[in-house]
Amino acid sequence: MSQTQTFFSNLKCRECGRLYPKEAIHICEFDFGPLEAAYDYDLIAKHLNREVIASRPQTMWRYRELLPIDGEPTVGQQVGFTPLVRADRLAAKLGVDELYIKNDTVNYPTLSFKDRVVSVALSRARELGFEIVACASTGNLANSVAANAAAAGLKSYVLIPADLERSKVVGSLIYGTQVIGIHGAYDQVNRLCSEIAGKYGWGFVNVNLRPYYAEGSKSMGFEIAEQFGWKIPKHTVIPMASGSLLTKIHKAYKEFIRIGVLEEASFAVHGAQASGCSPISTAKKKNTDMVKPVPNPKTIVKSLAIGTPADGYYALRTLAETGGSAEDCTDEEVIDGIRMLAEYAGVFAETAGGVTVACARKLIESGKIPRNESIVLCITGHGLKTQEAIHGECGEARLINPSLREFEALIANDNIQQSSAAAH
Amino acid sequence: MSIQVRIPAPLRKLTKDQEVVAIEGAATIADVLANLDTAFPGLTERICDEQGNVRRFVNIFVNDEDIRFLEEKATAVKAGDEISIVPAIAGG
Question: How large is the ipTM?
Fold first, then answer.
C-alpha cells in the first residue's frame, strides 16, 4: 500500500526523540526509553476528517491512518466500535448528571479491550514476517492473542501466572494456543518473556511488538470522542495496570485535536487501581513521579496486578498534564463496583470494571470529579472472565418445584402486585 | 568463580553479541557496572543517567530479585550470582 505507508513514519524514543526504523524493536539503544509510533500528522489531516471516518465500517480500523501498520489490517478487521452507553440510573446512584459507559466487555472476539491492541500487533507481526507470536499476560491479552492468532493461522505461545482465574486459562486453551503457566507473579512472567524474546525470533506482542500493540489502545479514545458527538468528555476514568491504556486514550484525544477532527477543549483523565497493587495511584497521592514497584501484589483484580508498571511514569505525567487524579479501592469495593454496574447499568464487568466504578465513585465523593460534568467510565473486560471473584457475592437462585402454590409462597414477601391485565 | 551478567538484546552490539558476560572482583552492583564499562566502553552510560542513577526504564535483578527492593546500586553481589539487565516492558 504505497499511499498509506507514509502516514506512519518511524519509531521514536519517548525520552530522547531518536528515530528508529519500523521494525520489531521496542526500546531505545541509548537510554532504554520506550519506542513509540510517530506519524506524519499534516499528511493525515489532509486525508482524515469526520466525514471520511463516519463513512467507514464501524470498527476500530475506521481510524486506520492513526494506527501503525503499513498496509490494510489482516488480523482483527472486525474489532472495536463498542457501545458508548448513557447510564442514567447509575448516574443517579452516583449522584452525577451525565455518565457514560464505554463498554468494551462486548469487544470482538474475546470480550476485552485487548482485542484492540492485538489486532494492531498481529497485523504488524504479519507485515514483519513473524510466524510465531507470543505474549506475557494477566489473562485478557492471552485470550486475545490466542483467538486472533488462531483466526489468522499464526502459531502462538501465551505465558501467564500459574494462578490465573480458571475462565481466563480456558479462554486461551480453547483456541489451541500453547499456554505456559509460570510459578510467579506477572512481573516475573514479563521478565522471562523479555529474555525469551531476546533469544527466539518470535513476535512478542508486549515486548518487541510493543510500539505497535500499545497504539491499538488509542482506538478506544477515538471511539469515545466520536460517539460522544465529536467532543471529548470532561472526565474519562480508566483502569491502570501498566498505565498504557490511560496514556493512549489521552494520546488519542490529542491526536484528534492535532489533525483538526476535534476542537481544543479542556478535559481530565483519571486513573483507577486496586489497593492491593496500586503503585501508580500511590505515587500520584504522594505527588512524586517515582513509581515504587509492588513486589507481591495482593488483590482479586488479577488483570491489573502489575507491580512494576512500565508506563507508570508516563501515566503520572498524563494525570498531571490534564489535571486528573488517581484513586484505588479495596477488594470489597471492587465487588460493590461490579454489582453496582450490573444492577444500575446492566453491564457485567470483570474485576477491573469494578475498580473503575469504585474509584470513580470515590473521585466523585471527594469532589475531584464535579457532579455536573460529563463522565465516561472505561469498562475493559467481561465479567464472565472473572466469575470466581464474585462467586457467592450475588446470592443464589431460589429453588422450588414446578408448582404455582410454591411460586406464590416464594414471592409473597417480594412485594409484587399481580397486574390487573393478567388477573383473570 | 565469576558473576554472570545477562545482557539484553539492545545492548549486545556493545558486547560483541555476547548474551552473558562474566565479571570478576565486584562487591556491589555499582562495581559490576564499573567493570562492565571497562570491558565494554559505553555500556554503563546506556544503563545509567548523567547522575549515575540506574535509568527509569531499566530493571536490574540479582538472582531474580529487583535491586529496587534491595539496596539499589549498593546491593552486594558475590561470586556465583546471576545478574540480569532487563528493559521495562508493558503488558496486561
Answer: 0.83
